[in-house]
């Protein structure tokens, strides 16, 4: 199980939105210094289940099941490529000879068709996962409580009524 530390920015009924740094997940990767897949932003916002009712400002530990991360990576990166190759092979080897057509054209058509079907299947799986919460990370621990709600409001430390009237 992968653990990430982050700070809650806002919450809803059973969900917390957490700002976390990419560094923890990337520390062990040999390509971390040259990887640009995540862009230049070092922080990301993660939506997580909040069964322990942590509040905005709290520093929390978020758990990701590594098996789920592997399944998601396969679905996003490998499955569409396999579908594209399978469609191209089907179009080239089976459909084109039976229809007396150009194998390259049928390979391209069926490859892109299967790729589109794979992307549609991923989108359906994404909608299903959002409804069930199957792949959502979970807050497992509050490491440090944030400031109480009344102190989170911006106060005027100098008490100046000209700059900041009430």
What does this structure look like?
This protein is of the alpha+beta class and 166 residues long. It has one domain (2-144). It contains 4 helices and 5 strands. It has helices spanning 23-26, 66-99, 103-132, 149-152, and strands spanning 2-11, 15-21, 43-49, 59-64, 138-144. A 5-stranded antiparallel β-sheet has the order 3-2-1-4-5. A hairpin with a 3-residue loop joins strand 1 (2-11) and strand 2 (15-21). Helix 2 (66-99) packs antiparallel against helix 3 (103-132). Mean pLDDT is 81; it is low at 152-156.
Please state how the strands of the largest beta sheet are arranged side by side: 3-2-1-4-5
* Strand fraction: 15-25%
- Characterize the main sheet: 5 strands, antiparallel
Question: Strand tally, please?
Answer: 5
Q: Helix count?
A: 4
The best one-word shape is rod-shaped
Q: End-to-end span in angstroms?
A: 49 Å
Q: What number of structural domains do the residues give?
A: 1
Work out the oligomeric state of the chains in this entry.
single chain
By secondary-structure content and strand pairing, the structural class works out as alpha+beta
- Helix/strand order, N-terminal first: EEHEEHHEH
Mean pLDDT: 81
Roughly how many Å is the radius of gyration?
Answer: 24 Å
Q: What share of residues is helical? A: 40-55%
Low-confidence stretches: 152-156
């Amino acid at each position: 199980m992968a653990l990430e530390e982050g700070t809650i920015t806002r919450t809803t009924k059973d969900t917390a939105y957490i700002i976390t740094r990419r560094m923890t997940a990337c520390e062990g990767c040999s390509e971390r210094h040259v990887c640009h897949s995540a862009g230049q932003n070092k922080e990301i916002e993660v939506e997580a289940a909040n069964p322990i009712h942590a509040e905005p400002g709290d520093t929390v530990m978020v758990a990701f099941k590594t098996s789920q991360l592997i399944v998601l990576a396969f679905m996003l990166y490998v499955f569409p490529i396999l579908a594209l190759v399978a469609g191209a092979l089907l179009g080239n080897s089976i459909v084109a000879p039976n229809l007396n057509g150009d194998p390259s054209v049928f390979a391209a058509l069926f490859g892109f068709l299967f790729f589109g079907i794979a992307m549609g299947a991923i989108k359906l799986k994404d909608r299903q996962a959002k409804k069930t919460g199957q792949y959502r990370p979970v807050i497992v621990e509050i490491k440090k409580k944030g400031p109480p709600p009344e102190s989170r409001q911006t106060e005027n430390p100098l008490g100046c009524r000209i700059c900041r009237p009430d």
